[in-house]
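Hi everyone,

Forwarding the result from last night's run.
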Amino acid sequence: MKFLKCFLFFIFSCVQLTLAQDSFSPKREFRGVWIATVVNIDWPSKPGLTTQQQKDELIKILDQHQKEKINAVMFQIRPATDAFYAKSFEPWSQYLTGKQGQAPDPFYDPLQFAIEECHKRGMELHAWFNPYRATFDGKEENIAADHITHQKPNWFFKYDGKKLFNPGLPEVRAYIDKVILNVVDNYDIDGVHFDDYFYPYAVRGQEIDDSESFILYNNGIKDIKDWRRYNVDVLIKGLNDSIHAHKKYMKFGISPFGIWKNKRQDVEGSESAGGDSFYGLYADSRKWVKEGWVDYINPQIYWAFETTAAPYGKLVDWWSNNAYGRHLYIGIGAYKVNAARDVNWKSAAQVGRQIRYNRANPRVEGSVFFSSKSLTKNPVGLEDTLIGNYFKNPALPPLMLWLDSVAPNKPLNLLAVEDDNGVLLSWKLPKIAKDGDKAYGFVVYRFSEGEKVDLTNSSAIKSIYYGDITSFEDITAEKGKTYTYVTTTLDRVKNESEPSLPAIITLKISKSKP
């Protein structure tokens, strides 16, 4: 009997701990989602929709992600050396309008629209580029006449029916740098993002046709495989330097394949037995973090805890031990939920376990989900699980103190006035910070009567948004109750100020109708 009581107490304690972990909603956590545009995976639902239909679809997607408390969007703007943005010298994407090179009609700028809509919802927008993919399929008739593959055919090699930039050519690296800096300079994005596509994934019987460029540009490197890795390294380091030279606060991150090397290949590799980025894609992803060439690394660990060749927990542990002080966000394969033949993905429980595992590791700063529709379609209640258990409250992105460690000044003259809908707040812009930064956004907190003003309490956050709007209407305030409001200022990298002076208000009790 005593043993049974101890066992039951142990089970009860584990359940209580799990419930506590599920309900915990940290104040700082990266909660990202990929919105893929290539072949219309997530948006728009099909090519050639009207401008209004495209806008309506994107707003609906972002509204759902806001309910999920997502705070960052990886928005694919260059899937195949084309553009989802107006200020480009590459042709409009066929996945947007149905024909490469054809502009939206009526005209609008999808990237600018997405930035504005993300920022008003308290979401960062990271511009997701595919640097080397020039065509997605072999249908040459779909390629615009002014496409770079026609202008500079010697810059490309063909592999598995697709054209890819040759990373070994210095002029190619300079061109990609130019493309990305054009967006950095002309748009208010929060980050530059790459996924796992560098040199192509191996296909049996295919060879990379770069032997001539190896002879010309080997830089004394004897092994062509080492040279390919060198080419990718040069691009990453150069971009890191140039992006931050143009905008010091800009975040640069990469989402590599989930395995760097396996331990059987290198004693410093992970306890896994799958494909790898180092030998398979010529991408030395660990080096980029170790050298500080990226601000965050976002490995795609799209496997279950039970996957023998690539166990989720072992890979998260390995990456956390190789983060070298940079941010580590884990890519979670939400697309597998109730879609994979793997029984471990038949419910939302696998994703919940992965979120809890990430949060238990202090070196893991958050998660990114592939992809958008895998959440918004709510397979087997996945979206409900996130909203109800894991992402109950809003969260700010984690700080990158190597980019900026100076907090902004607090908002001034906070006022609270009762109106027909609840409480209308207004305040004045703060003074410019000592590092010259202006206010980039604001957080609004509300505390009930008798509740301590505590900025670490994420449940008190009523709004996070980026912009210089200095008012907020709280339509959830209840009649007859007393509230204390404070606001804080955010800068570009989401450093937060001290709170404003509080505004305390007691709402009138509604008069009952005769």
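The first strand starts at residue 30 and ends at 35.

Cheers,
N.
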